[in-house]
Amino acid sequence: MACKLTASENLFRRAEKHIPRGVNSPVRYFDPYPFFVGKAKGAIIWDVEGRAFHDFVMGYGALLFGHAYPPLVDALRDQVEDGTLYGAPTEAEVELAEKLSEVYPSLEMSRAVNSGTEATMHALRAARAYTGKNKIVKFDGCFHGSHDSVLVKAGSGASTFGVPSSKGGIPGAAEHTLIARYNDADSVRKAIKSTDEDVAAVIVEPVIANYGLILPEEGFLKELREICDQYSTILIFDEIVTGFRLGKGGAQRYYAVTPDMTTLGKVLGLGLPIAVYGGRSDIMQNIAPLGQVYQAGTFSGNPLSVRAALKALEFTNPDVYTRASSFTRRLVSELNGIIEENHVNATVNSLESMFQVFLGVDSVRTVDDARRADTGLFKKLFAHALSNGVFTPPSQFETNFVSAVHDESSAQAYLNAFQGWVRGESRSG
Ligand SMILES: *Cc1c(COP(=O)(O)O)cnc(C)c1O
């Protein structure tokens, strides 16, 4: 008798034949196969069979206003009618660059690109050109996209799948990337000195959101600023997650540290592909055709993505952040209650509307702490939550994202799933 496949399993079998592992980005895969999406609205995502999940992935952080945010849907519909690609500049791009530098004063000049990977790649190239130096410093566990010079000891999917340093990169590219330890400013000084001060840029996620969630210790980011000044090195804040998430002004306003260059993405596009890199105008004036640093893109600054970014910048109601953060604070406090009551060896890191539960460890302040977490146990928690209608990132080394439209039903679903899993574990343990 033929066994009836679920619609997702059917799609997965087809997908695997023509797409590596059936997915267009590695973290989307999980055992035995991912659910395939039918549609999404607000904080809920439905699979192709119509099963609903409370979504804590939220496009890996992009969807601060939830899925299919009505004002965005309207704006996009209008824009589609007027064309989606011109190959010529628009007023909306000017407005975007102007507004970005109001909200992020450090972004005196910026360029719109299509993905975070592009943004960090071009920012690093601009920093090398400006300083005339060759090497960069990145931090173990930070993720900056998937190009050669940053795919060294990277977080996110790169660590989940055991390839923190990718094969196939240009030989030698990784040798120009020095690795420092997050929350350890001395390791940055040492790295820079080891190169005869040949470091063009220090690139950092001001808050690590790609190795689970790891917070900067008091003074760490300020110290990076001082070190970069001392050694004439460009400080790049990769705010692709933190920008528009820790409040409108990102981590640089939140922690009051001004980088030389910044990359933005994710929330910036509210689900459409757009990212930005930029910074001091003396650095950005080297970009072609004004200067000699080449960067171009067919879809860069396309009117659809720019419309979305203008929507992200347009809202003025601070309730968006208050709501998402207080939802998260309450959820985390109840999670901690369950953990304590049941003597679970676990800890929760959170900041504003981001949180992650680490299993098998009682505190995570460094990337090495996170590495000690029990990823096998985490997979079980993920599977249990999923079968109870809660979709979280499938990896211990990702972060849950809350939107402004998550409500009590999502909080209850998450807590019930966690509570149920804890009970099941204690029975089987
Ligand atoms: C997601 C992410 C990137 C890569 O952005 P893509 O749009 O996926 O290329 C870079 N840096 C950080 C901090 C990110 O979280």
Relevant terms:
429 residues, alpha/beta, seven-stranded mixed sheet, 37% helix, globular, binds pyridoxal-5'-phosphate
Order of helices and strands: HEEEHHEHEHEHEHEHEEHHHEEHHEEH
Termini separation: 37 Å
DSSP, total strands = 14
- Helical amount: 25-40%
The largest β sheet comes out as: 7 strands, mixed
Bound molecules: pyridoxal-5'-phosphate
Strand content: 5-15%
Integer average pLDDT: 95
Q: Using the alpha-carbon principal axes, give the shape.
A: globular
Low-confidence stretches: none
Helix-strand makeup class: alpha/beta
Strand order of the largest sheet: 4-10-9-8-7-5-6
Structure description:
There is one protein chain. By secondary structure, this protein is of the alpha/beta class. The protein has helices at 7-18, 70-81, 91-103, 116-131, 157-160, 185-193, 220-230, 250-254, 281-284, 303-314, 319-341, 367-371, 375-387, 408-428; strands at residues 37-41, 44-47, 52-55, 109-113, 135-139, 177-180, 199-204, 234-238, 261-264, 275-279, 346-351, 354-359, 390-391, 400-401. A seven-stranded mixed beta sheet has the order 4-10-9-8-7-5-6, with helices on both faces. A four-stranded mixed beta sheet has the order 1-2-3-13. The chain has a three-stranded antiparallel beta sheet with strand order 11-12-14. Strand 5 (135-139), helix 5 and strand 6 (177-180) form a beta-alpha-beta unit. The radius of gyration is 22 Å and the shape is globular. The two termini are 37 Å apart. The model has no long low-confidence stretch (mean pLDDT 95). Pyridoxal-5'-phosphate is lined by residues 115-117, 120, 143-145, 205, 209-210, 238, 240-241, 265, 275.
